[in-house]
Design brief:
Blueprint lengths: L1 E2 L10 H24 L3 H16 L3 E8 L4 E8 L3 H4 L4 E2 L3 H9 L3 E3 L21 E9 L2 E10 L7 H81 L4 H28 L2 H5 L2 H13 L5 E8 L6 H22 L3 E8 L3 E8 L19 H12 L3 E6 L5 E8 L1 H11 L4
Parallel strand pairs: 8-9
Antiparallel strand pairs: 1-5, 2-3, 2-7, 3-4, 5-6, 6-7, 9-10, 10-12, 11-12
Helix pairs in contact: 1-2, 1-5, 2-5, 5-6, 8-9, 9-10
Bound molecules: adenosine-5'-triphosphate and magnesium ion.
Length: 426
Amino acid sequence: MAVEGQNIPDYENCENNAERLSRELLALSRVSAALSELSDLDAILRITLDNVLQITNGTVGGILLLDEESKTLSYRVYHGLTSDIVEKIHLKLGESISGKVAESNKAVFLEDTSKDPNITFPELLNVDGLKTFISIPLRAKQQVFGVITIASQIQRRFTQTDISLFYAIGDQLGIAIEYAMLYERLRKARERLRRLARQNLVAEEEERRRIARELHDETSQSLSGLSLQLEAIIEIAQLNGNLSADFIGKLKKVQSLTVHVHKEVSHLISNLHPALLDTLGLVPAIRQYAETSLQPLGINVFVETLGNVKRLPSDIEATLFRVIQGAIGNVAQHSKARNAIITLEYRPDQLLFKLKDDGQGFDVSKITDIEEGGRGRGLFSMRERIGFLGGTSGIDSKLGTGTTVWANIPIGQEFYYAEKNKSPRS
Ligand SMILES: Nc1ncnc2c1ncn2[C@@H]1O[C@H](COP(=O)(O)OP(=O)(O)OP(=O)(O)O)[C@@H](O)[C@H]1O
Ligand SMILES: [Mg+2]
């Protein structure tokens, strides 16, 4: 008998009904609890299917989801069915019972399938003795996301309460699927953004390296040559005595301006991409940057290393350098510290970085977002960059007690990967 959810008389005695109802409500509350706790779609579907199988004494069953583009239903989780059959099933709307349920948005309850020869269940052909069959739409805001189908070898009658309960499960699951799909879309979009951001950082570093190289090879060399030539001209003019003191004074000014511009360009090159980072690695580059930025401000800086210092793949060294550069910049700009200690600890599978200053500290809980003026950008970009390397980072600070910035990043695997890729060429 096919029942579509309306006015079914309650056949069973009250005692059995009460028992069954409490069992079913318990299952419903388990489904609700699972739905509210989980965001992983497959886990949600699996737990719901298990519970519905349990309350219906189901032998076989599954949850089919509707693909929005192809408008076909396919199994996402199932029980008691063989994968080779299930994987081939893609039901159009209106096709077979599940397709009809999805199309009409109405559940189907069959109390004895053997009495209905017109019913086709392509996936159930190999299961003997099936009697009861339930197919419920999974819907949210009248939109159908899929269907849950259950078949049982035990014949049963469906009361109005049963039907309401199964609709309730279908509706709850529909909402959970909608949320899980939205969450999944959001997660994928975020993942895409992170990948893009990481690629941008790599491209930015490469561009910085290229501009630094060009400035060094072209501009810096020319300025150095110009300065030497001016020096030679001044010396010759002074020896020959054929130029006025005033003119020689002007030449000297031009020469010292050239030296000044040369220094500025060297500074710019170092900020863009310190040559030391490529030649000698992270520790010397950090030491040089820390000393040149903090010592002129009267801040003593110590750079200490622990463990076996080793070279890391260039993108890891560059990312770490930018993070530490930001933290050093913050000490210079905001800390009013007298001392700063930078520690780099090389463990076999981890690199631990710490920068501790004894300055005025700040209330970290107040930095919740990037402000209009850029405040917070440094700290958030540190967390992102370290995240790209699969690491974790943090900042501990209290007003009046100084600030500690730290980061841990995994290096074993990355290093192995880099080494492995190098070997065929070397
Ligand atoms: N070592 C520190 N000592 C004291 N205050 C700090 C320290 N590091 C960060 N801060 C506080 O945290 C705020 C946020 O730092 P963040 O690096 O994110 O931004 P910013 O330095 O203001 O801007 P930007 O880094 O873009 O120049 C700073 O404005 C400062 O108030
Ligand atoms: Mg900053």
